[in-house]
Amino acid sequence: MDHNLNMIRKRVPVKELVIENYTVGSISKSGVAVLYMDGIANKENVNTVIQRVKDIEFDEITDSSYIVQLISDNQNSPFPQLLDTERPDRIAAILAEGKVAILVDGSPHALIGPTTLVEFFGSFEDYFLNYLFSSFFRLIRLFAVAFSLLITPIYVAALSYHYELIPKDLLSTLITSRREIPLPPILEAVFLELTIELLREAGARLPTKVGQTIGIVGGIVIGTASVEAGLTSNVLLIIVALAALASFTTPVYRMGNTIRLLRFPFLFFAELWGMLGIVISFSFLLTHLLKLTSLGRPFLEPLYPPRITDSKDAIIRLPFTMLYNRPQYLRTENPVRFSEKKAKEKKDIDE
Asked: Membrane-spanning residues where (predicted)?
């Protein structure tokens, strides 16, 4: 923890940086540090984090992942409600915004809160690029997540109930690919989805070189064999492979796991009621997100409640000269980051 704190202090060399240390775990006696900027961070957010860290009743705290599960607002939600990072420069950036950081001794991951849903689809490297490229890459990630979540359920719903919506040219291709398939679309899709998940888990648990080989060769061999054996269609194989590839675009691993899990309820609802089932499952998901909070702050902000000021650095990122206010949902003590007028002034050196 001392090394991590030193790296953060090098990037935030001001006296306003406050570090409060606590001991958590009746057996492990793990050190936990809460970091915030005095005069910027909202005292309510800081007190909420400190109170929840003090109230932890657990014997062994070995990683910051334990803290996430113990202090989250809704521990039954599949969505992570605290953002984790290994980058000290990102910690410095969020402290300047008015957020709170949590470090655990022995863990390379720091926790950030409060956070919002859109932050999980933004990478810190976006700020190193021109705002046009950053906005474009963020939109690609959001499209990829929607594609990964919905494309397989839409395939199952279309072939089970709504085949009249498929264009004639594409319908003939689907009929040809499924002519000798004995399984219904739902079993075909579940078989391929579970195969992809097994390959992911096998690749993650095996040694690096062996895991990479298993992931690539296993995917090619099993995919080709399943099509030739008549268990799955080649069209669905391409769709599932693209959906798996799209899920890897999520910058935060925890959110990627959430997307992987949500595909299966969407699949089963699509089999039960077709497109209506997809709409119903999406309604349940949206209702859950509307109720979800991060340290008491709305998780779906700035989409709901809608805040135009915070949308400048959400789905897209505007130039730095327009990001002169800190996020409104944080209710910071000092909401202004820098002077808007001075940022727009561009004087030559001879002036």
From this structure: 139-161, 235-254, 266-290
